[in-house]
């Protein structure tokens, strides 16, 4: 880690301040007691849902994403996909339907 490498040359307090890291967090990490929270761990299902959502230009909703993931071989239902989308704020965009806009109305 950067802080450990530079503590010989600079004080820990200064290095942590520059990196906007609390000294207590550094020492906790150093002792090995710092565990990653569930928010910091990327779930493979979360990653697959996000990639599929972005791959289809934010147009696919829960049902279409479930079908896409099942075709890729990932056995998943709609409820977990719905939870992932809600947790990450992913909302499908419904494209507007085409409506011709003409200004010339020629009638006989």
Describe the structure.
Residues 45-97 form the HTH-like domain. Pfam families: HTH_21 (PF13276). InterPro entries: HTH-like_dom, Transposase_IS3/IS150/IS904. This is Transposase. With 108 residues, this protein is mostly helical. Among the domains are: 2-31, no CATH class; 44-88. The protein contains six helices and no strands. The termini are far apart. The mean pLDDT is 83.
SSE string: HHHHHH
| Number of helices, counting only DSSP H or I runs of 4 residues or more | 6
Largest sheet: none
Determine the mean pLDDT: 83
Helix content: 40-55%
Distance between the ends:
80 Å
Q: What spatial form do the alpha-carbon principal axes imply? A: elongated
Given helix and strand content, the structural type is mainly alpha
Spans with pLDDT under 50 lasting ≥5 residues?
none
Relative strand content: under 5%
Please provide the count of β strands: 0
Rounded radius of gyration (Å):
25 Å
């Amino acid at each position: 880690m950067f802080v450990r490498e530079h503590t010989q040359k600079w004080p820990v307090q200064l290095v942590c301040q520059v990196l906007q890291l609390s000294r207590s967090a550094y020492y906790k990490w150093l002792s090995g007691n710092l565990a990653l929270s569930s928010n910091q761990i990327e779930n493979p299902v979360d990653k697959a849902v996000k990639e599929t959502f972005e791959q289809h230009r934010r147009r696919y909703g829960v049902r279409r994403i479930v079908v896409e993931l099942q075709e890729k071989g990932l056995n998943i239902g709609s409820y977990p996909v719905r939870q992932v989308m809600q947790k990450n704020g992913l909302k499908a965009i419904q494209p507007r339907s085409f409506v011709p806009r003409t200004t010339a109305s020629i009638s006989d």
